[in-house]
Specification:
mainly alpha
């Protein structure tokens, strides 16, 4: 979970950059890295958490992966 926060911080940084290569980096990050483990992580988060906050986060991550 801590690693995901770091990745999201990186995504936020890239989204704030005006450079054209930032979009390329975002796409590469998603397709070459995140999509390989994020669906499983979101499912585990929903199934294994007793806290509503994490179950909702898992659900939203799952929807993000489907888009």
């Amino acid at each position: 979970p801590d690693y995901l926060g770091t990745i999201m911080e990186c995504i936020a940084y890239l989204m704030e950059q005006p450079h054209a290569h930032s979009e390329v980096l975002l796409q590469r990050l998603w397709h070459e890295h995140l999509i390989s483990w994020l669906p499983g992580f979101s499912a585990a988060l929903q199934a294994g958490s007793h806290l509503l906050l994490y179950r909702v986060l898992g659900s939203r991550l799952e929807r993000l992966c489907g888009e």
